[in-house]
Amino acid sequence: MKRVKRKGTAFILTFAMVAAAMLSGTSMVFATEAGEAGTGADGSACTLTEGCTLENGHDGDCSVAETGSSTSGEGSGTAESTSTEGEAASGNASSETAKTGTGTSGDSSSQKVKSLTATISADGTALTGGGNLTSGSYYLSGNLALNTDITIPSGEDVTIDLNAYTLFGTGNGSVITVSGTLTLTDSSTEQTGKVTNGNAAGEGGGGVHVNAGGTFIMNGGTISGNTATAAGNYPFGGGVYVDGGTFTMNGGTISNNTATSGGGVMINGGTFTMSGGTISSNTANKYGGGVHVAGAGTFTMNGGTISGNTASEGGGVYMFGSSTFTMESGTISYNTADYGGGLYVEDGSIGTFNMSGGTVSGNTANKYGGGVYISKMQTFNMSDGTISDNTASEYGGGVYVETYGTFNMSDGTISGNTASGYGGGLYVSSFGTFTMESGTISTNTASNGGGLYVGTGGTFTMKGGTISGNTASGTHSTGGGVYAEGNVHFYEQGGTIYDNHPSDIVRSSSIATSGTLTGSASGTSSSNGTTAVATTADSGSTEAVTTASENDSSAQTGDDTNLVLWIALLLAAAAVGGTAIGSRRLVHRN
Q: Which is it for strands 208-210 and 176-178: parallel, antiparallel or unpaired?
């Protein structure tokens, strides 16, 4: 057998491997560099590897650039810098070595990073343990107990990186007072940096006090263990007090603070925007365990969580005066109060709560308004979002509307709430007003008025939406869907009330109406304990199902007909001596 030589096999194989590597983007590494040798603080030898890790248990001030860090100059090289307390090393790119007291500045801003150690350095001026800070970026290189609480003067822009360490206040005022701009963060992996031990009984804001014109931006870190409770003009804001300034919370935690009002945060005529982070486990002796908004203050919540806070009124959030709270997203949950477990809107000037998203859930009121309490002359506008699984020991498991209060519901869901007394989903007091244009009130429970209770002189206008699946659960309970007591104005212009137990609508005394209260033919309501079904919607669904079923049946009939035709053809072909299958012919031979 002739042997065929395969010339160039090795070359072709090599070329194929290289080409494959180029096409796949694979980097072919042939060698690695060994680590550099260094010397520890005690003079003993140590090995420095990538990431500036000192091996073999050595300590020292040796440092090399971390992987991915910039180097000085246009060519290659390593920028090494070591700073003493309060100094900064400059390079061509911004980098920082955590917990070593060494910082570098970026070439774009040439701004120094200053170490907040036992002595705080600000542009070369030594400040013993606190005092005024000038513009710049500061970070903690260890736990710091201040001799003088920190002040950010007007016009100064300061960033403080807690770097996993704790900043202890003197205990005789706010830990940080802001008239300029403060950005608080924690760049550490542990995320354990904390501002604590503030006691601002006189001026408010145990952790941080923001004056009019000041700005506080919180991106990380924790404000915890601060108080504002003693007798004084402003015993408000255990964690943060904003007096006409601006507070933006993008991250971090405000927890375990205590105040007379505003255990976590107090906004007095200022602006608070919450996009992230957590306000939790704070306590107010009176109002607003988590957040208290007063004066002409504005609170916008488009993210984050307010949970586990406690107060007498407004466990999660308390509003007073002409303040405005807009909830677009986020969660208010598991807060506790006597009135308004999740949220309390107090009377005074005209205040407004606008809810277009988010969730108010799992809150508890020892008396009224498990989720939301709307006081007299105040307004609650709900265009979306969910109020669910809240509990009231007496009235209004989901929402309680006080005398002359107003609740407008254009969409959203009120479900799964419970009241031991009246109004599992919603309680409308005498002369209160509730208008429902859309949305759902369902699966709520109370002794009377499982879905909705309307008191004497109250007004309920239903233009759309659904009230269903609610239960009145007491021994002599009535009005699973709606219970109207006394002289109630009921305007039913649309929507559906059905499948509530033991009855859909119960009214006592007299009721003024402009709509149908009984019967299910129109798909609106029933008062005889039977299920009132929206016949139009149901018949439409039935028709759709029937059509689909008919189509499926037609398709099956067509398939059966084709099968019969094939069998007939095969039998005919067999009769003449062969069987046609596709393009082949099987001929039977004797």
A: parallel
Tokens describing residue 312: 């007498």
pLDDT tens, residue by residue, 384-430: 999 999 999 999 999 999 999 999 999 999 999 999 999 999 999 99
Task: Give the Å distances, CA to CA, from 394 to 332, 369, 506.
Answer: 21, 8, 20
Q: How far is CA 243 from CA 106, 210, 292, 475, in A?
A: 34, 6, 12, 52
Amino acid at 453: Y
Instruction: Calculate Rg over the CA atoms of the chain.
Output: 36
DSSP strand pairing (488-492 vs 459-462): parallel
In eight-state DSSP terms, residue 4 is P
Tokens 């003079």 found at = 43
Structure tokens at 235: 């015993």
Residue 587 has pLDDT above 90, yes or no: no
The CA-based dihedral angle spanning residues 8, 13, 18, 19, taken in that order and rounded to the nearest 10 degrees: 90
For the chain, what is the largest distance between any 2 Cα atoms, rounded to a whole number of angstroms? 118
Is 393 exposed, middle or buried, given 0-12, 13-18 or 19+ CB atoms closer than 10 A? middle
Tokens of 26: 């694979």
pTM exceeds cut of 0.90: no
The single-letter DSSP state of residue 154 is: T
Lowest mean pLDDT among 17-31, 480-494, 556-570: 17-31
For 410, counting Cβ atoms within 10 Å of its Cβ (0-12 exposed, 13-18 middle, 19+ buried), the class is: middle
> pLDDT digit string (tens) for 28-77?
333 333 334 444 444 444 443 344 443 344 444 444 334 333 333 333 33
Contacts 24+ apart (CB under 8 A), 82-87: 83/115, 85/115, 85/117, 85/118, 85/119, 85/121, 85/141, 86/114, 86/115, 86/117, 86/119, 86/120, 86/121, 86/126, 87/115, 87/121
- What pLDDT sits at residue 210? 98
Q: For tokens 């005889």, what's the residue? A: 528
Predicted confidence (pLDDT) at residue 330 exceeds the cutoff of 60: yes
Read off the tokens for 138: 């500061």
| HSE, side-chain direction, 13 A CA sphere, residue 242 | 31
Least confidently predicted of 38-52, 140-154, 475-489, 525-539:
525-539
* Phi, psi for 320 (deg, rounded to 5): -145, 150
Residue 3 has phi, psi (to 5 degrees) of -95, 125
Using CA atoms, how far apart are residues 496 and 514, in angstroms rounded to an integer? Answer: 15
**388 burial via Cβ count (<10 Å: 0-12, 13-18, 19+):** buried
Q: Kindly tell me if the per-residue pLDDT of 564 is higher than 50.
A: no
The answer to whether residues 128 and 148 touch, using CB atoms and an 8 Å cutoff, is yes
